[in-house]
Amino acid sequence: MAKGIRNLAAALLLLLWFLIGLSFIIFGIKSFVTGLKVAQGEGSAGVLRVEQRDCAHAGCVWYGTFSPSDGGEDIPDVSIGGLDRSTPVGASLRVTYVDGRAYYGEGPGQWIGPLIFVGAGLAITGYIAWSWFTSGEETTTEPGTT
């Protein structure tokens, strides 16, 4: 009976890790696509006027109104993260607006991080799948060999 419970617990643990790896892949791909758009200069360039800052132990998120450079309509309640904690409320930042968020800066930094998430997710799910499918294999030896 105890062996069956241990096997069930091990299977549930493997399933949990598989789902964690899968979520890394999904989150990473979504963020990678957005980061690639930012790195390639897609989206709308403009200025974000910082109106609010919310900080927690993990970091800060700033909110403000985005004004597109092309003279389009202002977009309120746009969030941006990854800024220096000392960025004051009232600051005006040149940003790129993509998929409902503002991004500060350009280049590979916008898509390399998500690519690491995808790689980690693939490693986790690949290892779990390999463990799952190879765990039931029995090794046999022919008589007279060790």
What's the structural blueprint in terms of helices and strands?
Layout: H1 2-39, E1 44-56, E2 59-68, E3 75-81, E4 92-98, E5 101-103, H2 109-134
Antiparallel strand pairs: 1-2, 1-4, 2-3, 4-5
Helix pairs in contact: 1-2
What does this molecule look like?
There is one protein chain. This protein has a five-stranded antiparallel sheet. The model has no long low-confidence stretch (mean pLDDT 85). The radius of gyration is 24 Å and the shape is elongated. Helix content is 44%, strand content 27%. It has 146 residues and is α+β, with helices and mostly antiparallel strands. The protein contains two helices and five strands. A hairpin with a 2-residue loop joins strand 1 and strand 2.
Query: What gyration radius follows from the Cα positions, in whole Å?
Result: 24 Å
Class of secondary structure makeup: alpha+beta
Distance between the termini: 32 Å
- Strand tally is 5
Anisotropy-based shape: elongated
The H/E string reads HEEEEEH
Short description:
With 146 residues, this protein is of the alpha+beta class. The chain has two helices and five strands; from the N terminus they run αβββββα. The longest helix has 38 residues.
List keywords for this structure.
2 helices; five-stranded antiparallel β-sheet; alpha+beta; 5 strands
